[in-house]
Amino acid sequence: MEGQYGWGTLEDGWRKGPWTPQEDKLLTEHVKLHGEGRWNCVSRLTGLKRSGKSCRLRWVNYLRPDLKRGKITPHEETIILELHAKWGNRWSTIARSLPGRTDNEVKNYWRTHFKKGKPTKNIERARARFFKQQQEQKQKQQQQLLLQQQQQQQCQLEVPQFEEIVIAQEMQEMTYIYNMPYMFQGEEFTGNSTASSDEKSSDDEAYYATWENLWNLDDLGLDMGDEALPFYY
DNA sequence: AAGGAGACCAACCGCGTCTCT
DNA sequence: TAGAGACGCGGTTGGTCTCCT
């Protein structure tokens, strides 16, 4: 059974398609009165010819008063990238870290901006900046280690084992990546890009390859459990 | 000005998990 | 403990808008 019913269609007694302002009003009043949850009771209590599923979705994605309208900011974009690298397509988990944003919004944003290796200019700059800063960080770290070794040799102290040095470096990189979203806060990613392809060294390309994997995580079909590690492992 | 392409977003669907009886 | 219903999540679709040629 299917027929025209206002803007949408009526199927199995349930209305489908775009919501009308009247329906929105009914649903909003219902939630104000009874709170969220028990979505299957909504149609009975309000007279709305919408399934519980449809009501929940409309409320969560559109009617909730705490929703943030407008475009995703560069800072939010960075957070999305970071968390997607960490959790994959767990949109609701990612959305929880972005107050006022829904999983649907995050998912749509990811698909239009990053799916199929189509990073925006902002992301290109973010990547370039990430790489540059990480390189600087590494150089600094190596210089420090060298200095430390020299001092230890002079004092005839035991030099740290190679593994210890590597672990220390990795720890520092992890801290850096976790702090990325905060470093970009309130900025327009105007940092000088080092992304010029002609200037890339082989090391550069290795890092870029890592980022490319991040953009195409979906395509890898990875089954990441709760203990899934961030991409840089 | 018109048409095509791509971006954006609301909404639906299917499936897995949770909760209650 | 098992089954049914409710709920939540990720994937997908389709309509509208915007920009470019």
From TrEMBL:
- Source domain of life is Eukaryota
Q: Where in the cell is it found?
A: Nucleus
Gene Ontology annotations for the cellular component aspect, listed alphabetically: nucleus
Name the Pfam families on file: Myb_DNA-binding
Which SUPFAM superfamilies does this entry report, sorted A to Z? Answer: Homeodomain-like
Residues of the HTH myb-type domain = 15-63, 64-118
Q: Which UniProt keywords apply?
A: DNA-binding, Nucleus, Repeat, Transcription, Transcription regulation
Please provide, alphabetically and separated by semicolons, the GO molecular function terms listed in this UniProt record. Answer: DNA-binding transcription factor activity; sequence-specific DNA binding
The identity of this protein, by name, is Uncharacterized protein
